[in-house]
Design brief:
Elements: H1 7-16, H2 19-28, H3 31-37, H4 43-50, H5 55-63, H6 67-76, H7 79-87, H8 91-99, H9 103-112, H10 115-125, H11 132-135, E1 142-144, H12 149-159, E2 168-172, E3 178-183, H13 184-189, H14 198-201, E4 209-210, H15 215-224, E5 229-233, E6 239-244, H16 245-263, H17 278-305, H18 307-312, H19 320-343, H20 352-381, H21 385-388, H22 390-415, H23 425-447
Helix pairs in contact: 3-5, 7-9, 8-10, 15-16, 17-23, 19-20, 19-22, 19-23, 20-22, 22-23
Length: about 450
């Protein structure tokens, strides 16, 4: 929420170049609050304000700006000042920002950064998108296993400002192979034994991910073992960097957003909703809408096949929306439950038999309850009790078909290596619409 009460005073301080008050403004508040107060300013004005903060604090405030504002600043402000800002950001964040910039601008900024920072960024850019390596940061606390507690604390005090986090100390050998990990708590509690070596304190039962593992695998390990950070290694066991809890949150948010969009039959959006070009946004929605359109077109053709039956029993037409919606809705529910359960590892492919049994049972229970309601309506609208029985019998079968289809199709997609979320709710509903009509008319012919 933009705080507009302080904007006139800020603009006045900028106009007067009131350095003491602008420095106090940047330092007195939490960086997030500072960023909130300058939201009402233009990107140029906000950039001028944070120039009065120290470089490290300036980077912290910048981190809390909206992405659009960050990009605007990186594109239009002085190259040298922008490059000096990027040096104080986490390398993985810099990679993400550079991806949003025009290629020439990104290269110009990289050229102005120190060689070590540039090498770290180049290395991260080489990892394919969606891998653990693409979201890791190289600013990890890595210390030699031969250091004593006293030497380790001294080294940490020198490096702390440049590190992403110091929750864990990663113990490495001369060739940068990860040997173990020491928590900061354990290191501090060992101050009384300052001559003890890190190799004596470290835990060697390590939870790691490889750089080419998927982001989702890293997230699952962090969640399963309740970690604040996880080390990223190459195939030879060399320490490359770490994925911290804030990176994990970003990945979880991104994956959840993509899954939600796929479940709604929308191709995942690369940019924010408001920042995406209208034609691109329409195209991403049109892909699945076209597929679903043809699926419903098949439903129309199926209906024409039973045209003679509908003419003879016109009252059957009245219940078509009830039949197909019962199956489609139950299928969408099952699909959503299974997709989310697969994403959170609540279920696995090996549980397919249990899943089918549970969904079959749910289909019978839900179908029976809905069938009783449908029977009451059918008795009022159908010619007689025998004819009315078509509706509850069909509802039971269609709901069972919906729950089984909605649960098994995501499992099949998972088995063949596709994202289960591709089995979107509208797609499941489209399949059940076709099956529902076939089941409905088959049951009608059988009873009538």
């Amino acid at each position: 929420m933009v705080n507009t009460l302080f904007l006139p005073e800020l603009r006045e301080m900028l106009a007067e170049h009131n350095e003491p008050e602008l420095i106090e403004f940047c330092t007195a508040l939490h960086p997030a609050r500072t960023a909130e107060f300058v939201e009402g300013l233009t990107a140029e004005e906000a950039w001028k304000v944070i120039q009065f903060a120290q470089p490290a604090l300036r980077a912290e405030i910048f981190n809390y700006f909206e992405l659009d504002r960050q990009i605007d600043i990186l594109i239009h402000e002085d190259e040298k000042l922008v490059a000096s800002l990027l040096v104080h950001l986490a390398s993985d964040d810099v990679v993400d920002l550079l991806q949003e910039l025009p290629e020439n601008r990104a290269e110009d900024l990289l050229a102005l950064m120190p060689s070590q920072a540039r090498r770290d960024i180049r290395r991260l850019q080489n990892f394919p998108e969606g891998t653990a390596g693409s979201v890791m940061t190289t600013e990890a606390a890595c210390l030699d296993e031969r250091l004593t507690v006293r030497e380790a604390l001294e080294a940490l005090s020198r490096e702390a400002e440049s590190l992403e986090t110091v929750y864990y100390i990663y113990v490495v050998d001369d060739t940068n192979h990860l040997r173990g990990v020491v928590s900061t708590r354990k290191l501090v509690s060992s101050i009384a034994r300052q001559d003890k070596h890190l190799s004596d304190l470290m835990e060697t039962d390590l939870v790691i991910v490889h750089a080419l593992d998927s982001q989702e695998e890293a997230v699952q390990k962090v969640a399963r073992y309740n970690l604040l950070a996880i080390p990223v290694l190459d195939d030879r066991g060399h320490m490359l960097g770490i994925i911290t809890h804030d990176d994990v949150i970003d990945v979880v948010r991104e994956v959840a957003t993509e899954d939600a969009q796929r479940i709604a039959a929308v191709q995942p959006l690369r940019d924010g909703y408001l920042r995406m070009n209208l034609l691109t946004l329409s195209y991403k929605r049109l892909i699945w809408l076209t597929i679903l359109f043809f699926a419903e077109l098949i439903t129309a053709f199926v209906l024409t096949y039973y045209d003679a039956d509908f003419k003879e029993y016109i009252w059957l037409v009245w219940f078509i929306p009830l039949i197909i919606s019962s199956g489609g809705n139950s299928g969408s529910q099952s699909a959503t439950l299974i997709i989310t359960a697969l994403a959170t590892e609540d279920v696995a492919l090996r549980d397919w038999a249990k899943i089918i049994r549970r969904e079959l049972a749910c289909g019978i229970v839900l179908g029976s309850l809905l069938a009783m309601i449908g029977l009451g309506c059918a008795l009022l609208m159908a010619p007689g009790p025998r004819e009315a029985s078509v509706i509850p019998l069909t509802i039971i079968l269609v709901v069972i078909c919906g729950t089984l289809s909605g649960s098994t199709l995501p499992l099949i997609f998972k088995r063949i290596g596709w994202d289960p979320a591709l089995m979107s709710n509208p797609f499941v509903a489209g399949i059940i619409d076709i099956l529902g009509i076939v089941i409905y008319m088959t049951m009608a012919k059988f009873v009538l």
